[in-house]
From TrEMBL:
Domain of life: Bacteria
Name this protein carries in UniProt: Ig-like domain-containing protein
Residues of the Glycoamylase-like domain: 327-540
Signal peptide per UniProt: none
Gene3D superfamilies: 1.50.10.140
Keyword terms of this UniProt record: Signal
The UniProt record lists the keyword Signal: yes
Domain SbsA Ig-like: 54-141
Organism: Mucilaginibacter segetis
């Protein structure tokens, strides 16, 4: 009986608790009021909303940032800042609209500069609520439309560019060797390939009257004498870099401390062009030609087949041998190597090396159409434009053909694809257009890359468009005028146009590279007079060698 009473009591307690759980909860004595908040509401830059990134902004924009409630004006100064790319603060004025819920900001900007407008959570509403999330607005200003230099004729402009660019090779040439320094910060490091371009540039300078024939001859004597008597050579081939004082190899990389056959070919292209130009009967010019022939005949092109393979190899090291093991195969900048190797009076290669090693028995053909232009040879969309510059400083592509391509069509097609790509601008880089184009190998902000339609980082290199004048004269002249007149305050310097720039990132190089400056002056001259083409193609060895490879054309 006692257990029954306990059981009944427990049940009663559970019943009472169950009944209480169904009772409504009592109302709080003081209702909870959510805290006031301040939220971003709207943005307009010069009356337009385009997200949080704006390009081609004028120098005095009106920026309106609206919020969900009136702001505390006293908090604005600490919460709102405008900084340029370097982090420097920019002054501005502010006012208010819409019952103080809109801040109207009016800064004063410079041309071609990146700015960031930031609003931090320190911004408060009139009721002391903090901004819930920070805001960053990215602005890039446009280009000053005013001409930076007085207008001159196109011919005068071409003269000016050639004369100014020549200074890199003549005025800035290494004082001991006379060779071209790799870049304007290279000290005693000189480049063999860039020196070949520089030799051709000096021929142009003499012919244009920028330097006298006597001065030009003296410089060539210094260069050739240094190459013959001081510079290290490996089976007659030169390294990529040399010390301009001693002639010793400066390693290009850990394994690349010996012969570079491609760089050697650019040097020989220049030397043979100079040999043809200095054709006087006097002892000075006669000796110069003989010394050039000694260097030319000394290159053992056939040895670089690496045990008689049907291909040429790019590098050889005296202590690492063929460790790099890089074949020179097309389509790229290496056509001149095979043209010279086939033309050597002492170490020529047979046609099979060209067909198998360079042309891949036709595997270098493309045939696809990009941006409305069919490309005969090479990688998708053409690759960097230096493919159509370095070998063609001397080789005239016009009317030239073989089993694989018409080279007049190849050079023009590749350039037009590069141009059309920049005009189409599929990556929407600010600044690209019909007057601002050209993708090739160049410096970039913090590095170096071979820019092309398939490796486009937003950087334009003046050498790309300017060295293409023979192929796209109208498009290249438009670029030249734009680079000089519109961007000249940032792009034009002591040795002509700086190496590269990005309007999208508001970056301008302060560098000059021999391999980029050389093609500018040389290809401008080929466009104007064909001088270098005529000289190089007049070499009897070149005529014979290229014919042996199967080339046909009016200049052979």
């Amino acid at each position: 009986m006692r257990d029954l009473k306990i059981y009944a009591g427990v049940c009663l307690i559970f019943l009472i608790m169950a009944c209480k759980s169904n009772d409504p909860a009592p109302s709080p004595v003081h209702p909870v009021i959510p805290p006031a908040s301040l939220n971003f509401n709207a943005l307009k830059v010069n009356g337009v909303f385009n997200g949080f990134t704006y390009t081609n902004v004028n120098n005095n924009p009106v920026i309106k940032i609206s919020f969900s409630s009136p702001v505390d004006e006293a908090s604005v100064a600490n919460a709102l800042s405008i900084k340029d790319k370097t982090g420097a603060n920019v002054t501005y004025t502010s006012s208010y609209e819409n019952n103080d819920s809109t801040i109207v900001i009016k800064p004063v900007f410079n041309f071609i500069t990146k700015y960031t407008v930031s609003v931090s959570t320190a911004l408060k509403s009139a009721k002391s609520a903090n901004l819930q999330s920070p805001i960053d607005i990215n602005l890039t200003t446009g280009i000053d439309p005013a001409d930076k230099f007085p207008a001159i004729t196109d011919n005068e402009l071409l003269d000016l560019v050639q004369k100014q660019t020549l200074k890199y090779f003549y005025d800035f040439g290494h004082p001991v060797s006379g060779l071209a320094r790799e870049r304007n910060t290279s000290g005693d490091v000189v480049t063999t390939g860039g020196s070949g371009f520089g030799i051709m540039a000096m021929v142009v300078g003499i012919d244009r009257g920028f330097i006298s024939r006597a001065d030009g001859l003296a410089r060539l004597q210094k260069i050739v004498g240094f190459l013959k008597n001081n510079a290290q050579k490996f089976h007659g081939a030169f390294p990529h870099w040399l010390n301009g004082v001693t002639g010793a190899v400066v390693p290009f990389s850990q394994l690349d401390n010996g012969a570079d056959l491609v760089e050697t070919s650019y040097l020989m292209q220049g030397l043979l062009t100079a040999r043809q130009y200095f054709n006087g009967a006097g002892s000075d010019e006669t000796t110069l030609r003989a010394d050039i022939n000694t260097l030319w005949n000394g290159v053992e092109w056939d040895w670089f087949r690496q045990n008689n393979q049907d291909v040429l190899y790019w590098h050889w090291s005296p202590d690492k041998g063929w460790a790099i093991n890089m074949k020179i195969s097309g389509w790229n900048e290496g056509l001149i190597v095979y043209a010279l190797a086939a033309s050597s009076p002492t170490h020529a290669i047979p046609k099979s090396v060209y067909d198998n090693g360079w042309a891949g028995n036709g595997s270098m053909k493309n045939g696809n159409t990009y941006y409305g232009v069919q490309l005969p040879l090479g990688p998708a969309q053409g690759g960097p434009l230096f493919f159509e510059h370095y070998s063609f400083l001397g080789i005239n592509p016009n009317g030239l053909s073989d089993a694989y391509a018409d080279y007049g069509k190849q050079t023009k097609a590749h350039t037009l694809i590069n141009y059309n790509y920049c005009v189409a601008n599929p990556k929407n880089y600010f600044g690209y257009g019909a007057a601002c184009w050209g993708l090739t190998a160049s410096d970039i902000d913090g590095g170096y890359t071979a820019s092309s339609p398939t490796n486009d980082v937003g950087v334009i290199a003046p050498t790309a468009a300017l060295s293409s004048l023979p192929y796209t004269p109208d498009q290249s002249m438009a670029a030249l005028r734009y680079f000089y007149y519109k961007l000249g305050d940032k792009l034009w310097g002591q040795y002509g146009f700086y190496d590269a720039f990005s309007l999208n990132d508001t970056w301008f190089a302060n560098s000059y590279l021999a391999i980029d400056q050389g093609p500018i002056i040389c290809m401008i001259e080929n466009y104007r007079s064909g001088l270098l083409w005529n000289l190089f193609m007049s070499c009897p060895e070149i005529k014979t060698g290229m014919k042996n490879l199967g080339f046909q054309g009016p200049h052979l």
